[in-house]
Design a protein that fits this description.
Elements (H helix, E strand, L loop, with lengths): L1 H37 L1 H26 L4 H32 L1 H11 L1 H26 L21 H4 L2 H31 L4 H42 L5 H11 L5 H17 L3 H27 L7 H35 L5 H6 L12 H19 L9
Helix pairs in contact: 2-3, 2-7, 2-8, 2-12, 3-7, 4-10, 8-9, 8-11, 8-12, 8-14, 9-10, 10-11
């Protein structure tokens, strides 16, 4: 009897430990998500600065190779980015202000032009209410005295978010934290990396860290650079098409297409809705609004279905399900900035998982190429390893004594 109990304990041990380990990982994952949600006012600028740092780091490092100090290179790079952002803002600020100022009038016009739809919906609602009242009267009968009708005043769903949109303090805090952290990362990020690598126990661990950082940097930089060029072309095409179709302020629509296209799927739908409302207001014929919106959707479809897959290829292909879930989750946690950061975060997670053997299945799920044909890629892997060894030994690792193996 005693031996049977011992055998049962031994058999259930691995299963219990495995279940406990899974539970711990799930709880840890949920705690991390909650921490990121709770500290979003601090986490969003930090993550934004790190993503921008990984993209701009090669520029500063190239400058340091030709004799420009990292601190000066960081200032020059950030000034260049600010000049580009300021130029773009200058081009669209006045037309955008006019569009925002005319929004109440536009809503009235849209309501009038779509009145044939609202009238039919009201007729359906009235018929439904009449049938419901008739059925209730037959079942309950006429009430002896009238009961007071409860009146409830509801605000629009977007009214509760106005305080967030008008949070000037939040915007200033975001820009301050993000800008300061970005400068320090660009100016002293390699020094911090050297300090971290001194704490690692072996040369192999240091090399793996460098490989992961290089993979994330190259993946993010390549993706954002190529997507930026594609979106710029789409913005030019949309702006030109809107100008030819007679839409007001075509530059605004080109910039909108450029910015919204960084959000896969959802950006095109949001842009189409905005263009449809604007076209409905500015043109007498209702059908012409559908023509303008159809032109915009055609251009975005050509870009999304043909140009982007042809340029990015399979190396950056991701499951639409994972992309949509990433947008929804990070948008729910961090708002608009989470929507824009969702794809870079997904790419960084995939590139980081590719650097660790235990996380290779997760990297494959996130869209990494299958490693079934390992013998054919050994030579390329060895070349990459040798490159990382040289990088570690010449630029990153600076020890007082010989490295331990």
């Amino acid at each position: 009897m005693m031996s049977a109990e011992v055998d049962n304990t031994v058999d259930a041990g691995p299963v219990a430990r495995r279940g406990g380990l899974i539970s711990i990982r799930v709880c840890a994952f949920m705690l991390v998500l909650y921490a990121l949600y709770f500290a979003r006012s601090l986490a969003v600028p930090i993550v934004t600065a790190m993503v921008v740092y990984l993209v701009l780091r090669p520029i500063v490092r190239h400058g340091s190779r030709i004799g420009i100090p990292p601190s000066i290179g960081a200032i020059g790079t950030m000034l260049g980015i600010l000049v580009l952002l300021g130029l773009g803002t200058y081009l669209v600020i006045q037309p955008a202000q006019e569009i925002i100022a005319d929004t109440p009038r536009h809503l009235v016009v849209v309501k009038e032009k779509l009145s044939f739809i609202t009238e039919r919906l009201r007729a359906v609602d009235a018929a439904t209410e009449e049938l419901a009242e008739t059925a209730e009267a037959e079942e309950v009968g006429v009430a002896e005295e009238e009961t007071p009708v409860p009146v409830e005043i509801k605000q629009a769903n977007w009214a509760s978010n106005l305080s967030y949109l008008s949070g000037t303090g939040n915007i200033v805090s975001f820009l301050t934290i993000c800008g300061a952290l970005l400068y320090f990362l660009l100016a002293t990020g390699d020094d911090l990396l050297r300090s971290i690598m001194r704490t690692l126990p072996s040369f192999t661990a240091r090399r793996r860290l460098i490989e992961v950082i290089q993979n994330v940097q190259e993946g993010l930089g390549s993706y954002l650079a190529q997507v930026s060029v594609i979106n710029a072309g789409l913005g030019v095409a949309v702006g030109t098409a809107m100008g030819l179709l007679g839409m007001p302020s075509p530059i605004v629509w080109g910039v909108m297409a450029f910015a919204f296209n960084f959000i896969p799927m959802i950006g095109a739908v949001a842009g189409a809705c905005i263009i449809f409302v604007t076209a409905l207001v500015n043109f007498e014929a209702t059908y012409y609004a559908f023509v303008v919106t159809g032109t915009f959707l055609t251009l975005t479809s050509i870009e999304g279905q043909f140009l982007t897959p042809a340029i990015l290829g399979r190396s950056m292909s991701m499951s639409p399900v994972l992309v949509f879930l990433s947008i929804v989750i990070w948008g729910w946690m961090w708002g608009l900035m989470g929507v824009f950061l969702s794809i870079p975060i997904l790419i960084a997670m995939r590139m980081a998982c590719e650097g660790f053997e235990g996380l290779t299945p997760l990297a494959t799920i996130l869209g990494a190429e299958s490693t079934d044909h390992e013998p054919q890629t050994n030579k390329a892997a060895e070349t990459q390893t040798e490159k990382c060894v040289v990088e570690v030994s010449t630029e990153v690792v600076s020890f007082n004594g010989p490295s331990t193996t």
